[in-house]
């Protein structure tokens, strides 16, 4: 197991090196001047040049890159000129908000997607199958920002069921004591039911928005895998031996259909990490997605580079966890490895 983890991490190093190089070059190719933005519209040309020298932007590109690599080697992602704080501290502060939102959205999508896929596979061609296909198609066709705005209009503005889309807690609640950074977990650990309810209410609509967007690929992949497994010889033999349908479906068919579904879950989680940028802006969610967008608008290089590098590390970690999940689901994967 440890050998496999070391092998996967070693194979990921060239990928992360490529992410560092490409991100550095792309941020320098973007339009906009961070020195001019930081100096303000009334700044003189001399003041802008002075800020450019202070930020090191007057240096040749290769020298800026070497300085960037040196900072990375020391675990320093730079300073954000928009917040004035180290990028690493900003990301550490905002990452739990994005992770809580993304994981809850994935949990919603996985529960409903797998259930819909199994039900549709057990009744192919029926009205249930068509209904699942229609819901999945609608979910993937609607952009996340449109679904989010629609939910805000219906559930907040028209019905008044949801709180105002203004962050992780309403104005009358205080954040729970920091343990994990996940408000639901921290408030539960603190035994603060009122804060837990407030955090869950704020989280419901953005998580549902992400969940609907991610529903389609999970449902379609589950349906296809279940149809293939249900037509296999060992399922026919189990059915002929009189095995109960519930046991046959849940214990044998679904477990054998899970491998492609787990792969899809990993891909969907990667998509959600990027898709939550728009959802965070719609719901004023203080995550790393909105942080990266604001930095991009200000041509603030360091936060953008730190965001992309963080996404790369998360993606590599996610793929490693998927490989380990393969072995837990199907022991033959471990033998072949």
Automatic annotation (TrEMBL):
The keyword Hydrolase does not apply. The chain crosses the membrane at residues 101-122, 134-159, 196-216, 257-279, 306-326. One of its GO terms (molecular function) is dipeptide transmembrane transporter activity. Keywords: Cell membrane, Membrane, Transmembrane, Transmembrane helix, Transport. Coiled coil: none annotated. InterPro entries: BPD_transp_1_N (IPR045621), MetI-like (IPR000515). It comes from the Bacteria. It is found in: Cell membrane. It holds the Pfam family BPD_transp_1_N. The keyword Cell membrane applies. Belongs to the binding-protein-dependent transport system permease family. This is ABC transporter permease. It comes from Elioraea tepida.
């Amino acid at each position: 197991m440890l050998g496999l983890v070391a092998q996967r991490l070693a194979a990921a190093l060239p990928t992360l090196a490529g992410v560092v190089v490409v991100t550095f070059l792309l941020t320098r190719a973007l339009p906009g001047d961070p020195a001019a933005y930081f100096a303000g519209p009334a700044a003189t040309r001399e003041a802008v040049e002075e800020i450019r020298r202070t930020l090191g932007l007057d240096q040749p590109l290769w020298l800026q890159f070497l300085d960037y690599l040196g900072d990375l080697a020391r675990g320093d992602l730079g300073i954000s000129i928009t917040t004035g704080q180290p990028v690493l501290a900003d990301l550490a502060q905002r990452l739990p908000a994005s992770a809580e939102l993304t994981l809850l959205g994935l949990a919603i999508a996985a529960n409903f997607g797998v259930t819909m896929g199994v039900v549709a596979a057990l009744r192919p061609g029926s009205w249930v199958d068509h209904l699942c296909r229609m819901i999945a198609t609608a979910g993937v066709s609607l952009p996340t920002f449109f679904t989010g705005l629609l939910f805000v209009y219906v559930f907040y503005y028209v019905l008044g069921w949801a709180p105002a889309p203004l962050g992780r807690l309403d104005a009358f609640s205080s954040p729970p004591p920091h343990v994990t950074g996940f408000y639901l977990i921290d408030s539960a650990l603190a035994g603060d039911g009122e804060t837990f309810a407030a955090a869950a209410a704020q989280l419901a609509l953005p998580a549902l928005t992400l969940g609907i967007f991610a529903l389609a690929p999970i449902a379609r992949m589950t349906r296809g895998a279940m149809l293939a497994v249900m037509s296999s010889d060992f399922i026919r033999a189990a059915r002929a031996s009189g095995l109960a349908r519930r046991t046959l479906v849940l214990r044998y068919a679904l477990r054998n259909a899970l491998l492609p579904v787990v792969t899809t879950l990993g891909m969907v989680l990667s998509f959600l990490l990027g898709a939550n940028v728009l959802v965070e802006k719609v719901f004023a969610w203080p995550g790393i997605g909105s942080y990266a967008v604001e930095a991009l608008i200000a041509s603030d290089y360091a936060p953008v580079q730190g965001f992309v590098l963080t996404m790369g590390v998360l993606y590599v970690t996610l793929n490693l966890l998927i490989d380990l999940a393969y072995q837990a689901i199907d022991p033959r994967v471990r033998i072949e490895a």
